[in-house]
Write a structure and sequence with these properties.
CATH architecture of the largest domain: 3-Layer(aba) Sandwich
Number of domains: 2
Distance between the termini: 41 Å
Structural class: alpha/beta
Strand content: 15-25%
Shape: elongated
Order of helices and strands: EHEHEHEHEHEEEEHEHHEEH
CATH class of the largest domain: Alpha Beta
Number of helices: 9
Largest sheet: 5 strands, parallel
Length: 237
């Protein structure tokens, strides 16, 4: 079974606990970043890609619950989050889960258990990534062929679905019209307006009902899927 190997963000205002966690994960060859307050943690989490976040609930400035909510609702991050806290009631745990935490560990804790839980969350996340494509709050499941944006299920015909999957698989770049036509229709001749028609249908389905637009036309080149509002949202925090 593959061991956890990745980049961890630790957000903890107790310096003794933070040092123990940083040393423990560093000794296991993990890359570790550390923040001592919620605002610093939010900035790091929004600016970098992490494989797991260990998050204290009680933090100065932005608390752990709000940080978790911001990551889930603004950045639409699905990074595994383990919440650490001295609060041990059922209501406290349910509040943490409702904010978006994946797991919950009550202080005091054993470092080996922290590591075991992070490893379990990481493995679960890796399995999910294989079948899921995600751009902002838009999710496509390759296995079930379900498309969602937020809580809304989106129904697509086969060709717009193929186009969307191609754009999501390549959201880091512009996908040219020629590339899309080749992937969707192959060598078959197609009407010059066919792609434009399907792009229009796709835009109506994934963008029209929502305030933030994801499907962008790069005139004379092709199309790209991205949310250019995310960085603005974080900069306004």
């Amino acid at each position: 079974m593959e061991d956890f190997n990745g980049r961890v963000l630790i957000v903890e205002d107790n310096k003794d606990i933070a040092l123990l966690l940083v040393d423990f994960f560093s000794d296991r060859q993990q890359i570790v970043d550390y923040a001592h307050d919620g605002l610093s943690g939010l900035h790091l989490a929004a600016s970098n890609e992490y494989d797991a976040i260990i998050l204290d609930l009680s933090l100065p400035g932005v608390d752990g619950l709000e940080l978790c909510r911001q990551l889930r609702t603004v950045k639409h991050s699905d990074v595994p989050i383990l919440m650490l806290t001295a609060r041990d009631t059922l209501d406290d745990k349910l509040t943490g889960f409702s904010a978006g935490a994946d797991d919950y560990l009550v202080k005091p804790f054993e470092l080996q258990e922290v590591y075991a839980r992070i490893q379990a969350l990481w493995r679960r996340s890796k399995q999910s990534v294989k079948s899921m494509l995600k751009v902002s709050d838009l999710i496509l499941n390759r296995e079930t062929r379900e498309v969602r944006r937020g809580d809304i299920v989106i129904t697509l015909n086969p060709i717009p679905f193929k186009v969307l999957q191609l754009l999501m698989e390549n959201s880091h770049r512009v996908v040219t019209r020629r590339e899309i036509e080749s992937q969707v229709w192959g060598d078959e001749a197609t009407d010059s307006d066919a792609l434009r028609t399907h792009i229009s249908a796709l835009r109506n389905a994934i963008d029209k009902p929502f305030s933030n637009k994801l499907l962008h036309t790069m005139h004379g080149i092709g199309y790209r899927l991205y949310n250019d509002a995310i960085s603005d949202n974080f900069n306004s925090q």
